[in-house]
């Protein structure tokens, strides 16, 4: 059974609050503190179910109701430069429509699919902020002509709704480097490489968070990241386990992550109860 939002907030309130977030380019975001840890991040836009498709407003609202601290949302761009919440470039898998999202305007898109199923990022961000959820933003690649509007739209919506400070960026492509402000970007290599590629060159560790599968981290990695104030977030999702039982193997990996003392979990809702038990036992 899922914890209701009140119980969830009590668990989070008992955790130690994070340090002040250092903004990009050395600025200190003194007004924005990281939420209580550990982070509990809903994969693919919220709590996904047959009633609430991935990256939909329904999935987001269910994550708010259940008390997650963040949602991970996938972003793409329409032909006329609107940022929308969608994982695949083609809508076939999620909606049954053989459309390329970057080949239609927002108006055309929403003639074919309801706005709550493929919402604009601005609406999604506004609702996230109202529900006190932070965002982990998975930035997908877009055609080069759309890049300026895409990156600007992401940054503008995050800033407009008070989510820029503390936003967690994952994904690929040149749009990643165009998002400025007090955000943090994923680091998916061992600590030894972080030390040689970032710290040794004078990079600011406050611009990063470590993000990978549980068994990609060692105790030495965790200790190194912790010395430099870099949060470690693990990702455990059903699709990670194509050849084994995803629930059993995912729970094993989550138990390992908890033994390392990680700072957060990005999960499919199938692991929610197990993660909640881990978080509760840490109190």
Please, could you describe this protein's structure?
With 283 residues, the chain is an alpha/beta fold. It has a single domain, classed as TIM Barrel (Alpha-Beta Barrel), CATH 3.20.20.190. The protein is 34% helix and 18% strand. It has helices spanning 5-14, 57-66, 92-95, 106-112, 121-130, 147-160, 191-197, 219-227, 246-260, 272-281, and strands at residues 20-22, 28-33, 39-42, 70-77, 83-85, 134-139, 168-171, 184-187, 208-212, 232-236, 264-267. The strands form 2 sheets. It has an 8-stranded parallel barrel, surrounded by 4 helices. A two-stranded antiparallel ribbon has the order 1-2. Mean pLDDT is 89; it is low at 1-34.
Features:
alpha/beta; 8-stranded parallel beta barrel; 18% strand; globular; TIM Barrel
Short description:
The chain has 283 residues and is α/β, with parallel strands linked by helices. It has one domain: Alpha-Beta Barrel (TIM Barrel), CATH 3.20.20. The protein has ten helices and eleven strands.
